[in-house]
Amino acid sequence: MTDKLTVSILGTGIMGAAMVRNIVRAGHTVRAWNRTRDKAEPLAADGAQVVGTPAEAVQGAHVILTMLHDGNAVMEVMRKAGPALRPGVVWIQSTTVGIETVDAAAGFSAELGLIFYDAPVLGTRQPAEAGQLTVLAAGPERERAVVTPVFDAIGARTVWTGEDGAAGTSTRLKLVANSWVLAVTAAGGEVLALAHALDVDPQRFFDLIDGGPLDMEYLRVKSAAILDDKLTPASFAVATAEKDARLVVRAGEMNGARLDIAAATAERLRRAAAQGRGSNDLAASYFASFAEGLNSSAVGDGASLLDPQ
C-alpha cells in the first residue's frame, strides 16, 4: 500500500462534501459521486474528481467511504457499484444507519471479498468542515494502516469499538449517542416554547441554571439558534434528525427497550418538517410546539424569539 490512497466518497451532502475536501487536503486522490451531480461539481475546484456513477467512483479505489442519507441508499448505491468492486477493497460505512443495515452491509462485503469497517461519525457541519469529527470505528486490525489516514483526515479522534465491523458495535454506540443529542435538543425547544407560552423571558431561565449541574453548552448553542433565528444553514437537519430518531426507536424495539422520549422526538421533528422546516437545523423542532406557523419578532436586547402568527 502506498502512502497516497485513492478514496471513493459516495454521497457529498453536508458531511460527505467536508470529508472530500479534508481527504484531498491530506494529499490523497478522491473520486466523489453524488446522486445529484450538480451538488458534487463544486468539489472539482477543491481537487476532487467528480464522476457520474458509483461504479466510476469505486474503480481502482483503495478505500470506499459511504456517507448517504440512510441505509436503503447505502445498499442501493453499493449494489450499483458492485460490478466495479474488487476483492480486498476497504469499505468504510459512515452513514448513520440501523442495525439491520450493518448486517446487510457486512453480508454484501463478505460476498464480494470487501474489508468492512462500521465507522459512523459524531459531529455536525462545523467539525466536519474543520476535520474535527469523532470517528467510531470497528473493523479488522490488520487493515488499520489503510483506514487510519482517512480517519485522521476527517477526524480529530478515532474511538475503536471492536475488530469485527459486522458486529455493528460502532453503529450501536452512535445510536446511543444520537439518542442523547436528540433528547437534549427536543427538551431545549420545549423549554423555550413553555417560556414563550408563560411569558417568561428565556434569559431568566439561563441565569437560573448558569454554572450549575443543569447547565450545558449544547443546550445554550441550540437555544441560541432558535432565539437568534439562525436555523440555516443546518448543522444537523430536521429531516435527517427525524430519520435518526426513528432508527433509535427501532433499535430499542428490536432489543426490548421502549424509548418514549425518542419516539416523541421523532414525532416533533416530523411536525416541524411538515411545517416546511425539514432543511432547518434540528433545533427547529421548537416549532412543533405550536399549531400555527411562526414568525420572528424582536425581543429584548435585539434577540429574537419566534412568535405564533
Descriptive tags:
3-stranded mixed sheet; alpha/beta; N-(1-d-carboxylethyl)-l-norvaline Dehydrogenase, domain 2; Rossmann fold; 47% helix; single chain; 11 strands; globular; 309 residues; 17% strand; 6-stranded parallel sheet
Structural overview:
With 309 residues, the protein is α/β, with parallel strands linked by helices. The protein folds into 2 domains: 6-167, 3-Layer(aba) Sandwich (Rossmann fold); 172-308, N-(1-d-carboxylethyl)-l-norvaline Dehydrogenase, domain 2 (Orthogonal Bundle). It has helices at 14-25, 37-40, 54-58, 71-81, 99-112, 125-129, 144-154, 169-197, 202-209, 217-227, 238-254, 260-277, and strands at residues 6-10, 29-33, 49-50, 63-66, 90-93, 115-118, 121-122, 133-138, 155-162, 294-299, 303-308. The longest helix is centred in the middle third of the chain and has 29 residues, at 169-197.
Please write out the topology.
Layout: E1 6-10, H1 14-25, E2 29-33, H2 37-40, E3 49-50, H3 54-58, E4 63-66, H4 71-81, E5 90-93, H5 99-112, E6 115-118, E7 121-122, H6 125-129, E8 133-138, H7 144-154, E9 155-162, H8 169-197, H9 202-209, H10 217-227, H11 238-254, H12 260-277, E10 294-299, E11 303-308
Short description:
47% of the residues lie in helices and 17% in strands. It contains 12 helices and 11 strands. A 6-stranded parallel beta sheet has the order 3-2-1-4-5-6, with helices on both faces.
Helix share, percent: 40-55%
What is the top-level CATH class of the largest domain?
Alpha Beta
Q: How many discrete domains? A: 2
Task: Quickly give the structural class.
Answer: alpha/beta
Give the number of DSSP strands: 11
